[in-house]
Amino acid sequence: MIAVPAFTRDDITVIEDAQRAVADYLDAVSDPRFSGLPTQLERLARDMALTFTE
Q: In terms of CB atoms within 10 Å, which end of the chain has fewer, N or C?
């Protein structure tokens, strides 16, 4: 049997904060004023958002 660690309230808070930070970043990179940001950073943020929401 595989042991799955339980998340504490602090863990959940950190994950929620990270989700908000990634969402804020994705909002910023979709702003035309920031169109020059490197695509690699945008890809990383999207990957992080998917990881935290799976």
A: N
Alpha-carbon distance of 18 to 29, in angstroms, equals 16
Other residues' Cβ atoms within 10 Å of the Cβ of residue 22? 20
Spatial CA neighbour of 25 closest among 10, 8, 5, 46: 46
pLDDT at 53 over 60: no
DSSP codes, 31-42: SGGGTTS-HHHH
CB neighbour class for 19 (10 Å; exposed up to 12, middle 13-18, buried from 19): middle
Check if the beta carbon of residue 22 is closer than 8 Å to that of residue 52: yes
Give the pair of three-digit tokens for residue 30. Answer: 């979709």
